[in-house]
Amino acid sequence: MLELTMASVSGTDAGATAGMLMAEAPSEPGAVLRVGRDGSACRLVTPDDWLFVSRVHLEFRCGPDGAWQVTWLRGSQPDPSSEVRLTAGAHQRPLAYGGTAPLPRGGSGEIVVQDRTSPRSVNVGFYHEV
User: Fold this and answer.
1) pLDDT at residue 12, as a whole number
2) Rounded CA separation 76/78 (Å)
3) Does pTM top 0.90 for this prediction?
4) Which residue from 63, 62, 64, 11 is spatially nearest to 34, judged by alpha carbons?
5) 76: which residues sit within 8 A by CB, 6+ positions away?
6) pLDDT tens-place string over residues 61-105
7) Would the CA dihedral through 100, 113, 79, 36 be positive or negative?
8) Which helix (H) or strand (E) holds 110?
């Protein structure tokens, strides 16, 4: 099971959990959870006017072995207006535009989508239950 929690943070709201959204999916091959502005394609939806987030920004996909990975999907623009960081345990690393990273099996962490032009972010916490 992969559990996601998402909070949209703007300016001085850092650390606030108001408006937190949650989604989960079983660790079955082919299971998918998406994060973005498009409510018809995404389980976790950001504000419509947060254009630094693509219609479908992040995709969490379960592989044939039950392991999960996250992909920062390429949007309609050649250069993104956000940065994405993945933190798992004590390790933090950037996720490349169009890149994919494995999530730790049985672990937890956070993915932050940071607006490059203002103090706004989308914080997605994850927990992979085995």
Assistant:
1) 59
2) 7
3) yes
4) 62
5) 54
6) 999 999 999 999 998 889 999 999 999 988 899 999 999 999 998
7) positive
8) strand 108-115
